[in-house]
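[job 4471] stage=fold_predict status=RUNNING
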Amino acid sequence: MTSPLENETMTAIAIEGGRGPASALHPVQSPLPEPKAGEILIQVRAAGVNRPDIAQRLGAYPPPPGAPETLGLEVAGVVARAAGPWKVGDKVCALLGGGGYAEYAVVDARHALPIPDGLDFVQAAGLPETVFTVYANVFEHGALKAGETLLLHGATSGIGVTAIQMAKAAGAKVIATGRGADKAKTALALGADVAVDVTAEDFGEVAKHEGGVDVVLDMVGGNYVAKNLDALNTGGRIVFIAAQGGGQLDLPIFRIMMKRAVITGSTLRPRDADEKARLAAEVERVVWPWIAAGKVKPQVDRTFPLEEAAAAHAHLEGGSHVGKVILVPG
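[job 4471] inference complete, writing structure tokens
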């Protein structure tokens, strides 16, 4: 990549027609983004690919006001224009509102974090979206504590592999689910105490046999909800971060009341800049030491050149990945 002082354009990924299948993604030449006050310009060395990117590509998850139309919610790279505490040349990873699928990206300086020692750009690019999401939903909304049990669906997704490790680092028990024996085996290798192949076992019955669960991190919804609630201990919390199995629920109100259950959920991208800054500081305080101690390790499934973003999306949609899919600018 060239320096922004040498060239006023960059390669970025656009969606032909504004929305469409993975094949609609293609490289274009775009102007360099111009940092506003308090923002840094990052020369992107790696960018994470996430399910919300697919939703945006399909027209179901538009960027919030003021965010770039270009896909990409997390990057790692080198500071090219400084702001806040950062200097030119600093190595950072950052949570973005958009714009990560490009050679350069701008971000609020407060939403960037130092790359943990021992990690390269590819590993670091897979941290922000997943770690921020897990911390906010499992530890803040779900209030998971040491000694409690987390039931986690989608164990081998980018969120799943991160949540297993973070929950174990916090001293919790983890029951993880996945589709297929291989995914269940992988979940155990990542640290899950119990792994359920949902094609062969009833996760709800397994969870009840294990003593029930205190927190559920659910990205499925649909027919998982009744089993989640059945396995939930009194005072338990169910946290939704997606609804890949169906977004409309028929909830048994009296069952919720009897269990004193809390049902909640959140999205990360629309949060305001101050809230993301607060969350970034908490992640650095709590999670970065876990990474330094080797308790949380980024899991990278596969990398693709930036120009092959279409293939990266197709791979993620295929569902065979374990961990993160990463784009690497040339």
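[job 4471] summary: The radius of gyration is 20 Å.
[job 4471] exit 0
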